[in-house]
Amino acid sequence: MTQTEVPIDVELRGLYKAHYRFQFLSAGFQLGLFALVEKEPGLAVREIAARLDLKEQPTRILLLGCTVFGLLRKDGEGYHTTPLSKPLTANFDEAPASNIPWEQHGIYRAMAWFCESLKEDTNLGLRREIPGTAPTLYGRLAENPELETTFHTMMSSVSRLVGAELREKLDLSGCGHLLDIGGGTAINAANLADRWPDLRITIADLPSVATAANEKIGKLGLADRVRAVSLDAFHDEFPTGCDGVLFAHFLEIWSSERIRELLAKAARALPPGGRIYVVTPRQDDDGTGPERAAMLSAYFHTIASGEGMVYTGAEYEQWFRAVGFEHTGRLPLGADTVVITGRKA
Fold this sequence. Notes:
Elements: H1 8-16, H2 18-30, H3 33-39, H4 45-52, H5 56-68, E1 72-75, E2 78-81, H6 99-108, H7 114-120, H8 124-129, H9 137-143, H10 145-169, E3 177-181, H11 187-195, E4 200-205, H12 207-220, E5 226-230, E6 244-248, H13 256-269, E7 275-281, H14 291-304, H15 313-323, E8 325-333, E9 337-344
Parallel strand pairs: 3-4, 3-6, 4-5, 6-7
Antiparallel strand pairs: 1-2, 7-9, 8-9
């Protein structure tokens, strides 16, 4: 073993003890520890305990873990933030801070059912840990308004990160009317409408989401070109009259059979020459990565739908051909997202 190699037992411990790391991170964030220490650097244990309304011993435990895992730095008796925790001290509706409440309340307990979900081939995590009767996460969110808000705050922050790059890189010069399936609260639509001033966009999503999207569209002054409509993507045909269809972070939630069905609906809604754009997390064609593809695949299977995963670009291209689209390219976004584009023959 060289000096830089990590012993196998240490590497394994990092995996099977990872839950402790997250709970120190989450508790520090939820209690406002990082924001407090950023605002008042150098506070000692008793001062932190008083400001967080905690007893001294629980405060010591929290500070010990946050220091061990690099979230805080201790100088003498005082505590300070580190580059790792500084992004968690403000802008709580933006990534990375917006991810922590969703991971804690939406994912953490449910992912304990991962093995059982694999064996049963369904999303047992959702069924055991998130109240409601709907078979998918998205239906249950409508039954849990507080959790739904947490989810959409997280997703909006993710969409803003990807959306800014999508706005600059995706060429929609030949598109006059874009249908945005599962377009959420208009993050992508607002970006694209701003970039392409002659573009009309119709967002199609669940009723509660469409209502929120139209409210936002009105506030942005885009109601003359952008609107949201209620649509059940699996039971309703897609509206016609568009010449482009966008699926952004939507198809990977579902099984390959459902994806082919959705792509076929898009093909039926488009005229010859119409364009399709699939924004999705990337899985390498050889099935070896990246890391985010593995994590999201486990999440889709255990919680979100019980049937989806992050698919390879080659799979999408095969599905395109099966429903009458010609594959026209792959556009990378960031480290692990891709836009797969096609044209109706």
